[in-house]
Amino acid sequence: MNELLDRIDALSAELDGVLAEAFSGAVGAATDDDVLAIMGAAAGIARRAEALLCEGSGVVSQRSTDEIVADRMSARFGSVTAGELVQRVTRSTRVTANAYVRIGRLTAPRRALTGEALPARYPGLREALATGAVGVEGALAVAVPLEKARPAAGDAAVLVAEAELCTAARGDAPDAPPVVDADALREMAQVWAVFLDQDGTEPPEERAMRKRDFWIGRCRDGVVPFGGHALPEFMAELRRCIDALMSPRTARQPDGPWFAGGESGAGTELESTGSGEGGEGEGDSSGDEAAPPLDPRTVGQRRHDALWTLIHRIATSGTLPTIAGAAPTLVVHAREKDLLAGTGFTHLPGIGEPQPIDLAERIACTGRMQRVVFAENGRITSIRTTERLFNRRQRRAIEARDGTCIIPGCQVPADWCEIHHVDEHSEGGETSTDNGVPVCMFHHHWVHVCGWEIQMRLGVPYVRGPAWWDPRRRWFRASKSPLTMLDRLEIRQPLAHSRHLTLTT
What we know:
- The protein has 505 residues and is α+β, with helices and mostly antiparallel strands.
- Helix content is 43%, strand content 13%.
- The chain has a four-stranded mixed sheet with strand order 6-5-9-10.
- Mean pLDDT is 75; it is low at 244-293 and 495-505.
């Protein structure tokens, strides 16, 4: 038997023993840190197995291109294409099998017509696969955008981009997160594609115009199915309208079109009470303990949080009817001494049970704090309000700079996020673009306790992940705005202003 096959069989037998132990309860009995470590190690094995599948699929593809159909490997094993044969062998979906074949072709060594050995089309990607830095999804994330840019950019420029992206995949790039998943690699590769082809390729407008359609089916069981293919600009505008029309005030105005909301108005407000002229409360401190996975929520929990985000967005839009002359505002009551000590409880109007004090601390981060001082007999002797909200211009600037929630892996758009004071307002942090970053509602609630750290350096946000995510605890620039990423690339790789871009390593 083939020696390589013998070694794979031995690894498979060893893995059977590991799986038997894992499924007997070893994983369930492990600590949180160990569970994440086990999953990380297993993912590394999976990526290496995918690399072997891509290598084999590339060989199958090469041997299935003979002009004589009967001589093709795929035909000899009863398959029409190489992808069909790979699908049967791997028991995967057709999409996955074709992905193995595609990456196998792009990373396989080549031969010239003269028989001379040539390097792979993507030699860096081949090395990244062989070392387990990327799997098939990561390889596709890199290769697909670069292949689109190759005709305009040329081979040399694409190889430069490939080397940079593979460096990022290994966690060694200076401007990339220490741990890069396939989605992040795809975003980086798309930025590289724009960088390599500044003019961009003309969209296939004629094909898109032919494919656009909309259909309505017959009513069955009380529902009517519908669907179609929409032009990108139509769908983008439709989504914006849907977002605007989510407000309860969507009734047609007497003399005008559908009403869609503004941007200012209600927010959140914290009322603290005390007996002196002290401070205004402190924010929570960040912890360094290992955290659960980036998004451990169930599907139902994510739906809850999405609805919560929608309600918050509508409540702060300024389009809702007023209550007692003011826009709907969440008010949280807490004693100043409890805020300062970080103990005790806070109260929400209409909610009977007291809530933990950290709720007030979170609200204070993004809302206004109104300090009410009482005399000994209960008389109100002083009212002072501190504004903590970022204005519209500041929000838009921060959104343009950072793109999305700055926690790696989170794709919540910046305009749906809260703006977090990196240096706490209660500790002297300013409400300025140099001290604000977009954080989604979920991560805003957890950023202080799950090991993520945020730091501003000359007005630029940097993030450091918990130990389970990056054992080396490295700081990296956090902005995920494609335009910001493109600017950084142009600084590092000056453009040659010509039709065909030439880059040197």
